[in-house]
Amino acid sequence: MNPWIAFLLTIAVLIVVHEAGHFIVAKLSGITVEEFSLGFGPRILGFTRRGTLYVWRLLPIGGYVRMAGMDPGSGEPDPGGFLRKPLRSRFLTIAAGPVMNFLMAVVLFGVVFSGLGVPTPAPGVARIGAVMAGYPAQRAGIRPGDVIAAVDGRPIPDWQALSVAIQRADGHPVRLTVDRGRRQLELVVTPRLDPATHRYIVGVEQPEVLVRAPVPTAVRRGTELTGSIIGGWFGAVASSVERGRAPSFQGPVGIFGLVSQAAQAGLSNLLAFAAVLSINLGIVNLLPIPSLDGSRLVFLGLEWVRRRPVDPSREAMVHMIGFAAVVVLMVVLTFHDLIRMGIV
């Protein structure tokens, strides 16, 4: 798939899913939705249906759902205005965007697990799937497709037995009996210690097959993986803070590069990366940054504690300043990506 098409489709789908969360809950809560927009800037296409304007704008780097009554200077009060609805309805409407991103991740992971399949080490004999360049196996003459039948004369029924035999050699040369088609060869290889794992390796990889899980299992695994990634995200940020380092974030250019790599690796990798990106979009939107959903949830929390809403004009000012700051941050991240890639 063309990298630009993959990038634009991925971003557009994730934005639509996020804004659809706000839109659906707003409609269910009786809130008047004036506009559902994909992108910012000048209008390209649009139509009105049941009082809501659906718009596709020039810059596909975001989107929004504009609800009646959110702008304190919007004119005549609308009976379906956002601020006229109960606190619970407003809270659920704002929280629905990030929640939809998390649900989208579960769905995408489920599609990968059940529909496309997950690469899994192939069972059976110790057949070589790949030989790593520069490692002992390559120097010994082992090739992909070879079957390791024995090590030092001891039969090797599967990969587990091969791994045990390599570790048992403790770095000393071993004699491999290799089946290659109709021929049987005797090759000598010396395992070397991998400093990362502290295990002896020869530089061969097990072949993989695609295994499809039943839908209930796929959904469960998708849910577990989504929860694990969310926990890992906050754990990584906490670790960065403890070490006195700023967390690393990708700008639009960096995300484009990552989506392109995932697309080139196949549909399964692209969907899995889109799921991870959807999780990150949901988490970032929950952060208490002005103009993002997290900040609006904070103001709703203050309203619950104070038993009265914050002055809408002051809240609007905070969100306006926050939006400007987010735009500046996006420009800085884009510039940083270009420097890292050597473009500027």
Question: Could you characterize the architecture of this molecule?
Answer:
Helix 1 crosses helix 7 (267-286) and helix 5 crosses helix 7. The longest helix has 30 residues, at 87-116. This protein folds into 2 domains: 3-117 and 213-278, no CATH class; 121-210, Pdz3 Domain (Roll), CATH 2.30.42.10. The protein is of the alpha+beta class and 344 residues long. The strands form 5 sheets. It has a 4-stranded antiparallel β-sheet. A two-stranded antiparallel ribbon has the order 1-2. It has a two-stranded antiparallel ribbon with strand order 3-12. The radius of gyration is 27 Å and the shape is elongated. The chain has helices at residues 3-28, 87-116, 136-140, 159-169, 215-242, 252-264, 267-286, 293-306, 312-340; strands at residues 33-49, 52-67, 118-121, 130-131, 147-151, 154-155, 174-180, 183-189, 192-194, 199-201, 204-205, 208-211. A hairpin with a 4-residue loop joins strand 9 and strand 10 (199-201).
Describe this structure in a few short sentences.
The chain has 344 residues and is of the alpha+beta class. Helices cover 51% and strands 21% of the residues.
Task: Estimate what percentage of residues fall within beta strands.
Answer: 15-25%
Shape: elongated
| Number of DSSP helical runs | 9
Number of strands: 12
Coarse structural class: alpha+beta
Q: Please, what is the average pLDDT?
A: 83
